[in-house]
Amino acid sequence: MRAFAILIFLLTAIGVMGVLSEHFRGDAGLVLRLAINALLSFVAVLVHELGHAVVAHRLGAEIRTIVVLPFEFKPKRRELRLKWRAGMGDLGGYVAYVLDRIDTRRKRMAIAVAGPVANILLALLAGSGAALLGTPTLTGALLGALAFLSAGMGIANLVPFRGSDGHHILEGLRAGARNKSVR
Q1: Are 56 and 63 in contact (CB under 8 A)?
Q2: pTM of the prediction?
């Protein structure tokens, strides 16, 4: 399933390159498209992880670390630094938090859902902006690319593979079903 999620994200990234190709042509345009794709990916991952962090905080969790691509932020210390994450298995980032033990399953599911929901909301917002401005304008094309990328990221994160948001949601639903059948 992880390969399927990566395929969704790669197809999304290729689509973004296509959206941007109208404005950035040739070899120099390819380099610019790749750089813009990376920047928009950073924005989409940041919004995704902040979605998790905001809901976790609202549910009473202590946020230990927020990692987005090469950056690690420790809120308690207000410390931002570069972090090499080779071999950690996370595609873009994560939020490390500690919850109390009261109703943990539902809280973890809500936190897991928050990242993809944040991506879908960003996609709707950016897509609306792109529709208003039109993709022939550079700003409209950038907003359209961000909408496309954010939507793809949100959908890919719902695919249930070990460590994904979809996996956490599915495990929470399974645990809830097991608890109900025992009663």
Answers
A1: yes
A2: 0.89
Cα→Cα distances 181→139, 154, 176, Å: 53, 31, 9
How would you write the chain as a 3-class SS string?
A: CHHHHHHHHHHHHHHHHHHHHCCCCHHHHHHHHHHHHHHHHHHHHHHHHHHHHHHHHHCCCEEEEEEECCEEEECCCCEEEECCCCCCCCCCEEEEEECCCCCHHHHHHHHHHHHHHHHHHHHHHHHHHHHHHCCCCHHHHHHHHHHHHHHHHHHHHCCCCCCCHHHHHHHHHHHHHHHHHHC
Residue 64 to residues 97, 99, 144, 170, 182: CA-CA distances in angstroms?
5, 11, 33, 24, 35
Q: pLDDT tens, 131-183?
A: 999 878 999 999 999 999 999 999 999 999 988 999 999 998 988 766 664 44
Taking only the tens place, the pLDDT of each residue in 38-56 is 999 999 999 999 999 999 9
